[in-house]
Design a protein that fits this description.
Blueprint (H helix, E strand, L loop, with lengths): L14 H11 L1 E4 L5 H13 L4 E6 L2 E5 L1 H7 L1 H15 L5 E6 L1 H6 L8 H8 L2 H11 L6 E2 L2 E5 L4 E5 L7 E9 L11 E4 L5 E5 L3 E8 L4 E3 L10 E9 L8
Antiparallel strand pairs: 1-11, 2-3, 2-4, 4-6, 4-7, 5-13, 6-13, 7-12, 8-11, 8-13, 9-10, 9-12
Helix pairs in contact: 1-7
């Protein structure tokens, strides 16, 4: 069940303190982000109660395959598509991971009452939008979108900058991965134009990382020997029309 009183930020957080770091670096990672009860509940939801879909790219264009869709393709065709995405990664943008499209699922009436829908509502509440505006300095933020992601061994997301049509003011990840070893991969990496890594964050539990867009970044491939998946919620802080209530 959702925590009593709903999801909540750690009451000890002071948005203005993190705004200083964001203004200086174009990014900030905030640990102990949600209350412990909220973080534990959300992590358990991703670990045990999320209907994951396969997200993969084909020639730079993304597709989401539900379990039934993947089954209908057959194992041979599915492996061919995964291999094609991996081949594309050698020279351009490509990805393979599992995802749950929280926004579209909620707006389309899929999985009614699914626990992650509470996070969408929380992110788009006046209190959280005020927090996000203060941290980023983006006073015009109107909404925050979200998808849950699960990176299994071998999964990856290659270099990209999250540039949209101007509506994406910042991007974020909310880490919900417990006890991750640094050599398991899955790091959120920031790159310069020459390809060097400027900064990187390993998967963490209850840590919100927000960064200005566009900005070159990637998620390094999760090692084949990683003992667990990398679990996060990701999305953009946006200034286009707010979501209409369901």
């Amino acid at each position: 069940m959702i925590p009593k009183g709903g999801l909540a930020l750690n009451p000890a957080l002071v948005a203005a303190d993190h705004a200083v770091v964001y203004a200086r670096d174009g990014m900030v990672q905030i640990g102990d982000f949600l209350t412990q009860e909220s973080a534990e509940w959300l992590a358990s939801t991703l670990e045990q109660a999320t209907p994951w879909q396969l997200a993969l790219s084909q020639k730079g264009k993304g597709q989401m395959l539900k379990v039934a869709d993947a089954h209908n393709l057959g194992a041979q065709e599915l492996q061919r598509r995964i291999a094609a995405a991996a081949a594309d990664a050698a020279s351009g943008f490509a990805f393979v991971y599992q995802a749950y499209p929280m926004i579209s699922a909620m707006l389309d009436g899929q999985d009614p009452g699914h626990p992650t829908h509470a996070l969408v509502e929380f992110f788009n509440s006046p209190a959280f939008l005020t927090f996000a505006r203060t941290v980023t300095g983006e006073a015009g933020l109107t909404k925050i979108d979200a998808q849950a992601t699960c990176f299994q061994p071998g999964n990856f997301l290659t270099l990209h900058d999250d540039e949209g049509d101007g509506e994406r003011r910042a991007a974020y990840t909310l880490g919900l991965t417990r006890e991750w070893r640094g050599d398991w991969g899955g790091q959120l990496l920031f790159h310069d134009e020459g390809g060097d890594v400027l900064r990187g964050f390993k998967p963490r539990f209850n840590a919100w990382t927000v960064f200005r867009t566009p900005q070159l970044h990637s998620v390094s491939q999760v090692a084949n020997y990683a003992a667990k998946p990398r679990l996060t919620v990701t999305g953009w802080l946006r200034d286009d029309p707010a979501y209409k209530p369901v």
